Amino acid sequence: MTNLLLLQLLNGLQFGVLLFLIAAGLTLVFGIMDFVNLAHGVIYMIGAYLVVTFAGLTGSYGLGLLLTLPATLLIGLVLEFLIFRHLYDRSHLDQVLATFGLVMVITEAVEIIWGAAPLTVSMPEALSGSVPLIGPLRYPVFRLAIIAAGLLTALGLWLVITRTRIGMRLRAGASNRAMLSALGVDVRRLFTVIFAFGAMLAGFAGAMVAPILAVDTGMGESVLILAFVVIVIGGIGSIKGAFAGALLVGVVDTVGRVFGPILLKAVMDPSAAAQAGRTLAPMLVYILMALILAIRPAGLFGQKT
Amino acid sequence: MSPRLRNIAAIVIFGGFALLPLLAGMLGESFLIVIATRILAFAIAALALDLILGYGGMVSFGHAAYLGIGAYAVAILQRAGITDLGLHLLAAIVAAAPFALVTGAISLRTRGVYFIMITLAFAQMAYFFFVSLSAYGGDDGVTLAARSTLLGEPLLENDRVLFYVTLGLLLAIYLLALRITQSRFGRVLTGTRENPVRMQAIGYSPFRFQLTAYVISGCLAAVAGVMLANQTEFVSPALMNWHRSGELIVMVVLGGIGNLIGAVGGAVIALLLEEFLSRFSEHWPLFFGLILIGVVLASRDGVSGLIRRIGGAK
Known about the structure:
The structure holds two protein chains of two kinds.
Chain A: H1 2-33, H2 40-58, H3 61-82, H4 92-114, E1 130-132, E2 138-140, H5 141-163, H6 165-175, H7 177-182, H8 187-209, H9 219-234, H10 239-267, H11 270-280, H12 284-295
Antiparallel strand pairs in A: 1-2
Chain B: H1 3-27, H2 31-53, H3 64-79, H4 85-107, H5 112-131, E1 142-143, H6 159-182, H7 184-194, H8 196-201, H9 206-232, E2 234-235, H10 242-255, H11 261-280, H12 284-298, H13 302-311
Antiparallel strand pairs in B: 1-2
């Protein structure tokens, strides 16, 4: 039981860091430009598709990953230039509609380019084994690598945000954009940088999970909505909140799916517990979100509502 | 849109629908009635959404959940041997109300982007709930044994009867919504949209009005779900996919926010466009999306502004 819990905690952590990579870009865009971007999830999906293609071309997952990063950065820049730039001072409703349209366009375009069947990419040889944890328990190296990469990215982001000039502007922008603008900072250019960088982080996340998931056109949606939940829980515009929220959601979702039914069995008869567990587990993170919002409407680290 | 113009639009739209089966009969294209019934059902949902989006300023991105609740009310009651349409509608409303009350109360603690995202998240929660209902087919959904009965008779099996019943419901809901928006309640709601603080200052509790409107809207959208289930005779979680919520918003905005009849017109435009595009290509969402982006970008004050300009009014 302890082993299973440890295993699920690690899986939850892995899922959490992934969600963080997606939520980080999303929350900064929200926080600074007050911009609803529904198309963030499809960039994660594009990252996964690109790594499949690049890994196929170069014959190496690592090289594929290296090519995916600048590619998604570029896609972010192009989208910002063509579409998002024109929507900053529009209503949320317009932003929702335009980015919703973009989701439709990109999803179909991906299906035209790569086909409707799910794709797979093989794991790099060096990371395909597993390492012993405690006792008979082993854990896949690749998942550990995802956790490490995610945590390192989080650390890097934290350093950039707390220690550098651009980070200072980011924080200032997230709390008061008008003031930052009045101080002579080109907020639009700052936003272009954040947007492209956020797209790259999402693409990075997609590229990293590609070897352990089936790559298909639906993969961006569930992740996008969970990223929203993460941001709502953490508080819009807060990277710290996104990190805490992501880990919380990742662990609750993963552990809840396994341990929910086990806990329910203690109080109900097994077949009812199994059904109730299956029903409740996917709803758990939303219930968590509801509870946190009921107590703190602005999220855990949120400043504004 | 002025009340006069709105009444004319309503007469044209409802009159057009009422005559449609005649036209379909003359052309011998009976599938028109099937498509039109689907449009009417979505028009009910769009109307419900416009009530809170247009008048309350609440951008709910989760209204597809109520479609699903309504549709599953039909599936679940039928399995239990209850086949009457009236009871199906009642059950849909009774099921939608508490869901709307609880999720609405939590969502309304927040504003703006938060509200959009939270309604989306709650709808997703409902989606996963129905996906996990393995007794009703889970992901694959469930095919209905038959359509709902009317007064104990299988009258709705006739496409025309189903069409006219749906049209009747839409008309009744339109009149009800019109009445709501013109009442004191509706004016408080609109006032809250414009300035909640001021409404509070003159002694109203914006939260209660908004929540009531949210619950009414959810219940009306559930009615749309009942009719959709009857039209397709198939119920699945795909009905409450978040794309569907997005499409409902598109319908409302296409038709012009906050005049009710616009939502009906928007549903007609959006679904006809879908129907039209899907004839050309299986990848029709690509073109639908491009049109959507184009319309939003082309018009400074959004889609409704473009419509207004094309319409020539103010």
